[in-house]
Amino acid sequence: MAKRYAILGDIHANIDALNAVLIDARSCGVTDFISVGDIVGYNAAPSECIRIVRDELRCPVVCGNHDYYVSHPVNLSDFSPNAEIAVKWTRDQLSEADRKWLYDLPLSRPVMGMTIVHSTLDMPSHWGYVFDVEQAKANFSFQSTPVCFHGHTHVPIIYEKTQNNFNVYNPQDFRIVPGVKYFINVGSVGQSRDGDVRASYVIYDMATKNVYFRRVPYDVEAAQERIRKAGLPEALARRLALGN
Ligand SMILES: [Fe+2]
């Protein structure tokens, strides 16, 4: 049977959002999952989210910048104060096995004729942000598969390279056209930044070649409560209700 994938990005330790997305995905007939990284950081349930992705979904995963920072001896002096606090707090929560699992994640990888990466394929370890077509062009020169899914900006969007043009589209359901390359940002499960507080993810049906952008409401107040209980910065709780 052809696979129907849910592609999850930037879960960011938000277990309330992740659980809501899993229920939605299963109700949509999803058979398999993919994670494009940043499983941890910002929110208060890193170990729980790692356990679900690693042990329950057992899906292909690439490393996000937060996954990298918490599992490598990185100097945090260039970080914003809130990001630094969240990285240090997350490091303290993880078991040695969790840390080693994050440490070993690849920066990009092929999955069933697709490619997955957290940021961009041209320089994945530099964690560059793709916010426009110009920035997407560099990625396309390194993309050998028709479809590449990514995350990192927390803003869902579609970049397309046809024979003659580069185009950009707002999230909308569509069918993959042969001969066209797509670099698709799936948005963020755990900390949306496009003004819509709902969790974002994408479904890709391998049989029909259809791509669906999904938004899922979840218990934002429960996620905020976890952040406050953990003693993480209040700004991280507030932004969940603003979608920024
Ligand atoms: Fe992220």
Ends: how far apart? 39 Å
Look at the structure and give the CATH class: Alpha Beta
Count of individual domains: 1
- Beta-strand residue fraction: 15-25%
Largest sheet: 6 strands, mixed
Q: Structural class, from secondary structure content?
A: alpha/beta
Helix content: 25-40%
CATH topology: Purple Acid Phosphatase, chain A, domain 2
CATH architecture: 4-Layer Sandwich
Q: Which strand order do you get reading across the main beta sheet?
A: 3-4-5-9-6-7
Poorly predicted regions are none
Tally the helices.
8
Shape call: globular
Bound molecules: fe (ii) ion
Q: How do the SSEs run, as a string of H and E?
A: EHEHHHHEEHEEEEEEEHH
Number of strands: 11
CATH H-tier superfamily:
Metallo-dependent phosphatases
Instruction: Report mean pLDDT, rounded to a whole number.
Output: 96
Q: Rg to the nearest angstrom?
A: 17 Å
Overview in brief:
The chain is 33% helix and 21% strand. The protein is an alpha/beta fold and 244 residues long.
Describe the structure.
- The strands form two sheets. The chain has a six-stranded mixed sheet, covered by helices on one side. A five-stranded mixed sheet has the order 2-1-10-11-8.
- It has a single domain, classed as Purple Acid Phosphatase, chain A, domain 2 (4-Layer Sandwich), CATH 3.60.21.
- The radius of gyration is 17 Å and the shape is globular.
- It has eight helices and eleven strands.
- Helix 3 crosses helix 4, helix 3 crosses helix 5 and helix 7 runs antiparallel to helix 8.
- 33% of the residues lie in helices and 21% in strands.
- By secondary structure, it is α/β, with parallel strands linked by helices.
- It starts with a strand and ends with a helix.
- The model has no long low-confidence stretch (mean pLDDT 96).
- A hairpin with a 4-residue loop joins strand 10 and strand 11.
